[in-house]
Amino acid sequence: MKMILAMVRKELIDAARDKRSVMAGLYYAIGTPLLMCGLFMVLIGQLSSPEDLKITIEKPHNAPDLIRFLDNNGISHGEGKGVKDITLQISDDYASDMAKATPATVLLIADQSNEKLQKSIRRLERNLQAYSSEMGSLRLIARGVNPQVVAPLKVVVQDQATPDSKGGMILGIAIFTMIYSVFISGMNLAIDTSAGERERNSLALLLSHPITTRQLVMGKIIAVTSFALLGLLLILIISKLTYAFVPWHELGFSVNITFEFMQLMLLIGIPVALMAATLQLFVSFMAKSFKEAQSYLTMVLFVPLALSMAASYNIAPDALQWLPVSGQQQALMDFIKGHDIPMLQLAVSSIGTLVISIALALGLEKMLKSEKVVFGL
Prior knowledge:
Radius of gyration: 30 Å
Oligomer: single chain
Mean pLDDT: 82
């Protein structure tokens, strides 16, 4: 045990000497919550108070009532800068058609393939439909017909979701970033302590000391795992502080990162961090150079990324709830939404994660007994 702790201390000292490279992984844990909160603030501001929409309206004098309705909803005629490339053309027969209670024609001209215009087009279409429904109801009332006659079905939705469970949808994305931080935070250290040491010719020198291959592997795994868990702890602390400043109440729900959730996240994150460390070290030792290890890890990390995304956006089949990463994330999302934690699924996915970690660690031990791996032949 003393030899393993000495190896861990040696790896941490080496990491402290190259602060820029190792801290690059921790910047993800620090910057991601800040960036997400900024984006959510901008999004909530747009949803709660949408900006005025300026479009080109041709022949507005033909439909003054429609123009007033649109203007009351923040849609008006504009010229010059800030005017969207959307044209609303009102026909010359609009007034006479409305007087005869026949459909009046308005022509909406826009490029629907333009992604920047799609939101504005949908907003204009919704308002035109609302005005059409209002005029239809007034026509029925003028003829002594109750407008409810044309609405034979009244659907009442009873939402049983609590404000915290609604916020769980947002936290699903946050949980995804937290789990991914485990893989990002220790990645640079994993590359540096494997492919980097081999390029500096210090790996062979290290193996010449009175230390077994297993002790060396264990020391490196513990060091990389420590950085992975440090990144997870950082992103949890910063998320708890920053998410409190986002006005979630304007969307009708709350997002609370409780200490119970943080404790559960750290507990679940331990086997995930072990798997991330062993996977990154295994792939890095397979590579023959530092840059090659970076390329390989970028591709390999797409696997846990895909599993985590599948669980976040609820597109995962039921079988993925039993797999590493996706199973742990599903359990965390159930906890956030106030549901019972699927203990069996969590246990199976966590044990599977540990089994993969042990298998990769044994593979590392076997690899480091080969001269081809040690010298990068």
